[in-house]
Automatic annotation (TrEMBL):
InterPro entries: ArgoL1, Argonaute_Mid_dom, Argonaute_N, PAZ_dom_sf, Piwi, Piwi_ago-like, RNaseH-like_sf, RNaseH_sf. Residues 537-857 form the Piwi domain. This is Piwi domain-containing protein. The lineage of its organism: Eukaryota, Fungi, Fungi incertae sedis, Mucoromycota, Glomeromycotina. One of its GO terms (molecular function) is nucleic acid binding. It comes from the Eukaryota.
Amino acid sequence: MLQTNIKTKSESSVPILKREGFGTKGRVVTVKANSFEVTKISKYDEFLKYILEIKSINVDKDIEADIKRERSDYGKSIRRKVLKELGLKKENWFQNVVIAYDGGTTLFTTDRLGFDKEIEIKPVVKENITLKNLQNLNGEPTQYSVQISRTDTVIKFAQLEKYISGEEFEWDFFSDDALDVLNALIHQRAAEKYIKSGKSSIYKGSKAKITGGIELWSGWFSTIRPGQESLFVNVNPTFTTFYQPLKLDEFLLQYLHPKYQKLPDEFNEYQLKDINEILKGLLVRPQHLESVQTERRIKKLLPATKVVHFEYKPEADSDETFPLEKYFNDKYQRRETKLFVEIMSEEGTHIAWPIEFCQITEGQRYKNKKLTGKQRSEIIAAAKMKPYTHEKETIKGAHEILQLQKNPTGVGMEVASNLAEIDAHVLESTTVEFAENVKIPANNGKWNLKNVKFVKSGEMLAFWQVVVFEEKGKRISEKDVYNFIEKLITQCKTQGMNVTKDIPLIQYVQYRKDDLEEIVKSAYKDAKKSLNRPPQMMLFIIPGDKTFNNNNKLYETIKRVMDTEIGCLSQCISVNSNTKRNFNNLQYCANISMKMNLKLGGVNSILPEKKLRLPSGEDVLLLGADVTHPKDKSGRSICSVVGSLDNRATRFATAYQAQERSGKEEIINIDKMIKEILEDYCNYKKNKKGSIEKTVASLLPPCIIMYRDGVSESQYERVLKWELPKIKEACAEFQAGYRPKIIFAVVGKRHHTRLFPANPKEADKNGNCLVGTVVDRKITHPTLNDFYLQSHCANQGMARPSHYTILYDDIKLTTDEFQCLSNALCYNFQRTTSSVSIPSPIYYAHLTCARARMYLNDDMKLPKVHSNLKKYPMYFM
């Protein structure tokens, strides 16, 4: 792979790594992708670009904020309605012109609009539009000011054709106006009949009820993507969670079930915080105002005691007001509840409605909200789709919903009716090695622990204690716990771990969600006292019922306290107190033994040495990096970098930091984390037998390969431009003259490309492509060096390949070499007996981010892992 400067518009942009070839290793097969080739783009050569500004005149403040937000689905739906009304009012402006509009602030047209035809200067026109079916709080139809002005931009499809031919490329191609035009065009027809959510068309006629007051709607994602020598329409069935359109009191009862059969008059602080996370920003329609068709957003839930000073004005044009609670009690004889919701309003104004008078508006996504374990299980079951069914639904979405074969764009676009067929290749599988030179073939990406021992046991586990959290009325008997621990110890010993025969002391504690931190600390102190020394590990048995997030909260508290304040290894066991399913499952015990061995410093399995060795024979440091963002705007982003310590990539050092959420993916202080990893790497090498006297310079790896997660295509340039120099600077600062050769590759999972075997004989037993399938032709990027790799077997449903893009390489690996290395690393994730969908460094980085997020305090400070855990680098497993 060569770093090549191809023709770009910007001389200051980051050098581009151009594809120099394709992978050839493995067996050649034919696959189909959920992409439809665009055989003709448009009968028009160019589009003009107008700026469309829509401002509210008499719209309530919270809805006005939606209109201003470019990416708000609700705001887009309103802006589409406004433009439609404008087209009816000013029909002559839009005659003989094709419009491409996606609900944002940009309007694309095939010709000048009517008001702009004969004037050389660029006019700016304004019109007022009324939406009669959407009213404000006073019952008045909402009004909007629309301003349209033409820009100097002319979008030429000839330039787009140069990009897809590979003749030219620039980084901002990923946000190219020509692609925006085409994407707006293919979505316009669907937007008239379906709910639009980003690039998805959601069909509300197909719903599955989910526990907790939500429902699952099906739909189709679609987007225009560049391929090699052509454009493709990527179509993928998708599922999205929505709020059920219930009355608010009914929703709360479902959300809180089974804890409450009837709503209380008020909730405690913990419960109120949890509920308000779900309700904040939710659109509701007031049912007591029969003549008013308005929608307002919820600010928060309030008990009656918090609205005693609220006044209510029944008539908008009246000066008369009444005490809020008294008004509703007298007029409507309220009996059911004393709960209200405060509505977002102008500063200094307080509006609240009783919850039973609030109807949740249909079609609101349940996004950025925590799902319980039960909800996740129900969603997975409802969305599960066999590959054959997935393929049929893909074709249905293209033909019936998007109507791609019926000129949906109005510009003469022609799209193939069949899925794209591509030449692919299947990389050979590997063997997985255990102790005593036992080698197990990974058939279709899977193996098991039967009759094998771990490569290396961690330190002998002799001092540990079991803590059982019991919920009121749901005690797990000591006999059941004892029998489970006995099975677990037997399994650990069977796998070759050094574990004492003695059953550890079992301690019961009462689960109280308001005092979890002190309970964990007290349990540790009791263990330390009974053992007459600090325990090596604490095993916590926690309730497995996940209907009210109790399990998640308890787990997070245990990890935060044990990792950052106490400095002791911990292992959690989730058990349903009724079924005790995990207690009777030997496979579960085997899975737990893998985690425990890793935490104690052991190695479970290794790959053949040649699989992870560079052709040059040089040592390589494998890095994984990830950034995760908070669900709310006020939180902080968590970044992590992990690095391999040994040549078999079985142990990894971790570093993490918090940074302000900015909507950007760059890891701001990646240089500091790289230096932490290099220090841990050198210390590990020094401590190896015979290396204690070696200099730092002699210990450092000559090669570094960075697998970077969480980067969208539009941010490739800025992430590479920031992070690659920082990595190089960190190396030079750590050791003068240290200039390792580097590969920087991005791995993405959040894409919609799916692969299907063209021949059923080339499928696995579930109907997916074979494990190890690589696609690097036809649907991949016309310039960049990218490929799709399906490295895992999907136990149920459709397998999703990972998308690899190599942005920088001065190690000079061939395409085959990098693809084979990446595939091998998917077999090296130490806590499973199957290959995974992403290379293990990225998986470990993701786990580190998830664990670090649990450490965040209420004041958003991120504590460090306790120094006691420094000698256990895999503590986070």
